[in-house]
Amino acid sequence: MLKSLKCCQVEAIVSVDARGQIVLPKEIREKVGVKAGDKFVVASSQSEGKVCCLFLIKADEFAETVREALGPIAKDILK
């Protein structure tokens, strides 16, 4: 899934509330297929020693990408 990642497009501008929460607009949730209870990996990127970007990746898709990347390595180690 992440192999075909195309970056970057602004989908929305959101705010963080007093409790540290962010609301994804309904249009974005529908477009991406986000449902209540879905889990996401929060990944970051740094520039000049500071975090400049945050990425949300669906946890199940991230897990599959990790399995694909580490699967061959794990098989070699377990031989």
**What percentage of residues falls in helices of 4 or more residues?**
25-40%
Number of strands: 2
Largest sheet: 2 strands, antiparallel
Strand content: 15-25%
Termini separation (Å)?
Answer: 28 Å
Strand order, largest beta sheet: 1-2
Specify the number of helices: 2
* SSE topology string: HEEH
| Mean of pLDDT | 85
Shape type:
extended
Radius of gyration, whole Å: 16 Å
User: Pairing-aware structural class of the strands and helices?
Assistant: alpha+beta
Could you list the spans in which at least 5 consecutive residues all have pLDDT below 50?
none
Provide structural commentary.
By secondary structure, the chain is of the alpha+beta class. The protein has two helices and two strands; from the N terminus they run αββα. The chain has helices at 26-32, 59-78; strands spanning 40-47, 50-58. The protein has a two-stranded antiparallel sheet. The longest helix is centred in the last third of the chain and has 20 residues, at 59-78. The two termini are 28 Å apart.
Write a concise synopsis of the structure shown.
By secondary structure, this protein is of the alpha+beta class. It contains 2 helices and 2 strands; from the N terminus they run αββα. Helices cover 34% and strands 22% of the residues.
Notable traits:
2 helices, single chain, 79 residues, alpha+beta
Question: Secondary structure elements and their pairing?
Answer:
Elements: H1 26-32, E1 40-47, E2 50-58, H2 59-78
Antiparallel strand pairs: 1-2
